[in-house]
C-alpha cells in the first residue's frame, strides 16, 4: 500500500520532470513560436494562476523574478540592446 507521503513525493517528481521538459521546450522556441504559444493559451494560463494558493502565487512571482534577473545578467551588451528594441 502506498502512503499519502509517497504518493505526494511521486506527484512532486512527475511535476518536476514535466516542468523541466516544458522549460527545455520553451527555451528552444523561436520568438514567433513563443508568441503563438502565449496567444493560444492565455485563458488557460489565467485560469491556472487564479486557482493557485497565495503561497504558490508568491513562489511563482519569486521564480519569475529570478529567471528574469538571471536572463538579463547573462546578456551581452548587444543582446541587451536588441532585446530593448524588440520590447518597444
TrEMBL record:
Residues 22-44, 69-88 are annotated as: Disordered. It comes from the Eukaryota. Residues 77-88 have a biased composition (Polar residues). This is Uncharacterized protein. It comes from Araneus ventricosus.
Amino acid at each position: 500500500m502506498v502512503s499519502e507521503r509517497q504518493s505526494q513525493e511521486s506527484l512532486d517528481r512527475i511535476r518536476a520532470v514535466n516542468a523541466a521538459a516544458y522549460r527545455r521546450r520553451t527555451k528552444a522556441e523561436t520568438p514567433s513560436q513563443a508568441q503563438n504559444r502565449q496567444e493560444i493559451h492565455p485563458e488557460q494560463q489565467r485560469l491556472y494562476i487564479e486557482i493557485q494558493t497565495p503561497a504558490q502565487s508568491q513562489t511563482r512571482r519569486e521564480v519569475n523574478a529570478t529567471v528574469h534577473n538571471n536572463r538579463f545578467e547573462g546578456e551581452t551588451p548587444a543582446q541587451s540592446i536588441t532585446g530593448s528594441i524588440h520590447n518597444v
